[in-house]
Amino acid sequence: MPRRDYSPHMRRPVIRRNYNTKSVGGGLAAILAVALAGGWTTAVSAQTMESALSRAYSGNPTLNAQRASVRVTNENVPQALSGYRPRITASADIGASITDTNLPSLGNSTARLGPRGAGVQIDQNIFDSGKTRSSVSQAESQVLGARATLRNTEQNVLLDAATSYMNVLRDTAILSLNRNNVEVLEEQLRQTRDRFQVGEVTRTDVAQAEARLSSAQSQAILAESNLKTSIARYRQNVGAEPKQLAPGRPIENLLPKSLPAALTTALTGHPAIIASLHGVDAAELQVKVTEADLYPVLGVRGIVQQRYDTQQFGDNRFSASVVGSLTIPIYEGGQVYSRTRQAKETAGQRRIEVDTQRDTVRAAVVSAWGGLDAAKAQIIAAQAQVQAASTALAGVREEAKVGQRTTLDVLNAQQELVLARSTLVTAQRDRVVASYAVLSAVGRLSAETLKLKTESYDARRHYDQVKGLLWGTQTPDGR
Fold this sequence. Notes:
Blueprint: H1 12-18, H2 21-25, H3 28-37, H4 49-59, H5 61-74, H6 76-81, E1 87-94, E2 97-103, E3 107-113, E4 116-127, H7 131-197, H8 203-238, H9 259-269, H10 271-291, E5 297-308, E6 316-327, H11 335-401, H12 407-441, H13 447-450, H14 459-467
Antiparallel strand pairs: 1-4, 2-3, 4-5, 5-6
Helix pairs in contact: 3-7, 4-7, 5-7, 5-14, 7-8, 7-10, 7-12, 9-11, 10-11, 11-12
């Protein structure tokens, strides 16, 4: 029987079909297209990164909860504005009374009355030492801070969705590579056993092939588990199951041109910093709101009343009054002074938190920018590694045909190629995710920046709807 019939190179066309060097080295799109071809084939059309981000933007529970939080904060403004408006209360009462009188000259008399009446009271604030004005300004600062927090949450949600998208692609590709590796090693083991039967190799070679196949099967199982985890995360962040995902692409065209430019953009416009600054404003205004309790309050009260049977049966009394009142606090037991000092300390804490937030943002920008640069370099190195490993594997197989290489050499070369291709897939994924991370770190990751085809949420709409409402318990959306 000719030796070439039992050489490891006999099935080389199959191996080249599973691991096309050019398609792997050419970029993420090609290898992921191959990997996904065996994935979710039931989908009519591929899902794109843009469609996934649009779905997350419109339906992510975390983002919708933050939008609801903004609407909650909006209601602080009409509550504060109520300090300028009158307070009107109506009251009514009805009762029964019996008066038994015994006078020596008149004898006994009994009076049965049904006293009743109704009235309206109006209280209008005239001057409250600026407490209402400060409360309104504070509420507006809280609204602006909530909007900035919403933009930051939107960034985090979009970044999580993009990361989940690329994780599914990466883990799908790695699973495909590991499954193909199992198929190749199964064929390698079959050939090694055939050669062992004719005495060309030893039992050690067979054991080495069996061990390497078991290891590959273990790696394939692990890759499948990782893919299931990534799919679950995708479902959590995007809100749908992944169906034949299209390759993702970096968004480096949307990024600042340099790291200093990125830092300048982040430190001046990042929503987390803006939210902290509005928090400082709100805390400083709280000091003024608390201090106002130490100063005079001027108001006016109007009362209109109608009474019946007050002193005798059938009497009818109407009264109306307008009274101005001036309240001057003298001593509140020290409570207001303590709350004022406490508010000042809180304001100082908020100022420190702004510096902390700036440091956090700066670190995030530098880290994300470094990750992007590293991913680019890793792609170049991984592409060279794939080319070299492919060439080395082909050479080792040829040398093994003439007895210059052992089975272990072939197995090692095969494993190095699989690792190189997995490294390339991971580096391509890291580049895409890092580009989104940089855009998020500078504070510009948003539906508008990405030009997502979805309706943008306008936080000002609800604010305009409720700011001037004078009455009514229904929310603008009908609840």
